[in-house]
Amino acid sequence: MSHRVKTIHPALAAVAFALLHSGIALAQTPQSMPPDTEAPRSAPPVPAGGAPALSLPAATAAGAAALAPMADAPRISLQQLTDTVLQYNPGLLAAERARQGAQAAITSAGALPNPTLDYTRGDQTPRAGASSLSGRLQTVGVSQLIENPLVRRARVEAATAGERGSAQQVAVTRNELVAQIRLRAYEYLLRQSEAVAAGEALSLLEQVNARVRARVDSGEAPRYELIKAEAEIVNARSLQQSALLQAEQAAIFLNRLAAGALPARWQLDASLTDSVNVPPLETLRAEALSQNPELRVLQAENDRARAHLGGARAGRWPGVTLNYTQSREPEVKQNILGVSLQIPLLDQRAGPIAEADAEVARTGVRLEGRRAELEQQLQYASKALEMAGLRVQALSEGAVRDAEAALRVADAAYRFGERGILDVLDAQRVLRGVRADLITARYQVQAARTELDLLSGRFATPGALAR
C-alpha cells in the first residue's frame, strides 16, 4: 500500500509560518504593558526551506580565489616587462645588427677605386744576321680610374638612404614589438579577469545548486531542476579552466618574446581599468605623418631609388682612366702617358635608367598609399576606442547593477516558490554575460588605445610608455 505525500506550496508555508510566529508573539505580550512601550517586533518570515539569499560578496571572494596560486609570484610592471623584452628579443637585436651593416655600406660606397699596376718582363734575342742587340725587355704600367663625381655621389646617397631605412626598420620593429607586448599583456589580464568572473559565477551556481538539492531531497522540486543546475556548474567550471589556460598561454607568449628571460611565475602589475589618455585625433594624425616609422622607411626607399636613378644617368660617363707605361728595351726606353674614356655611343644605359625611374614611381606610390591608409586606420581606431568607451560606461553604470538586481529578484521569487529554477539560472546567465561583455569592452579600450599609439609611432622611441 503506497502513501502519497502532499506538499504545501512554499509561499503558503512561509505565510503560515509568519502568521503563526506573530500569534505566538501576541500571546506572550503582557496585558499590563504601558502605552508608550513598543511591543517587540516579530521575526521576519523565513523563506521556504530556510535557505538564505544568494551572497554576491561571497561569490566575489570565491572568484578572486581562482588566482590564489599566483599570490606569491613576483609582480612585474608593464614598463619592466617591456624593457625586458626589448633587451632580449631576437628580432629587435637582428634589426640592430642589420643597421650596423648598412652603416658599413656607406663607407664602401664612398671608397675610391684602386690603381692598377701592370708589369711584364722578357728577353730579346735577335735573329741571325740581324743588327739588333740581344737583351732583357721590361714594361711597367700604372692606370687609375678618375671616377665621375656624380656617380660616386649618387652611390653614397643611395647607401645613406639605405642606412636611414635600416635605422627606421629598427624603429618599426620596436614599435610593433611594444604594441604586441601591450596587447598580449592586456590579453593576459583579460583572461585572468574572465577566470575571476567564471569563479564568481561558479560560486553563485553552487549556492543555487545547494538550495535546489535541498528542495529536491525534500520533494518540493522535481529532479530535473537539480540536473539543470549541475549542468550549469559544469559549464562555469569549464569556462574558468579555459580562461586560466589562456592566461598561461599569454604569459608563455610574452616569455617567448623575451627569449625566456622572464621568471617562471610572475604577476602583471597592471589592470584593464588603467587610465587611457589619448590626444585629439588631429594631434595623432600629425604625429603619425611625421613620426610613423613605416612612412619613414618608405621615404628612405624612395630617396634610395632617386639616388639610383641619378647614378644610372651619370653612369653613361663613368669616368676617365689615366694610363702611364714605361718600357725598356736593349736599345730604347719609352715613357707613354694615355687617357681612356668610355663614350656612350652604342649603350646609353636606357635600360637601367628606365628601371630606376620605374622604381622611383613605385616607391612613391607606396608612400602616398600608406599615408592615405594610415589616416583611415587612425579614424577607425579612434572610433573603435570611442565605441568601446561607451560600452564600458553603459555596462558599468547600469547593465551590471540591473543584472544583479534581476538575479536577486529571481532568487527571492524562487525561494518563495513564485518562480522556478530556470528563471534563477537565466538571471544568473544574464549577469554572467553582462560581466563578460564589460571585461571584453575594457580590453577593447586598451587594444584601441594601443592601436592608436602604434599608428602614431609613439612606441618607436625609448620611453614611449611614460607618455
TrEMBL record:
UniProtKB keywords: Cell outer membrane, Membrane, Signal, Transmembrane, Transmembrane beta strand, Transport
Cell location: Cell outer membrane
A Pfam cross-reference name: OEP
Start and end residues of each stretch annotated as Disordered: 28-51, 107-133
Protein origin, superkingdom: Bacteria
Signal sequence bounds: 1-27
A GO cellular-component term linked to this record: cell outer membrane
InterPro entries per the UniProt record, alphabetical: OMP_efflux, TolC-like
GO molecular function, one term: efflux transmembrane transporter activity
Family to which the UniProt record says this protein belongs: Belongs to the outer membrane factor (OMF) (TC 1.B.17) family.
Protein name: Cobalt-zinc-cadmium efflux system outer membrane protein
Organism: Xylophilus ampelinus
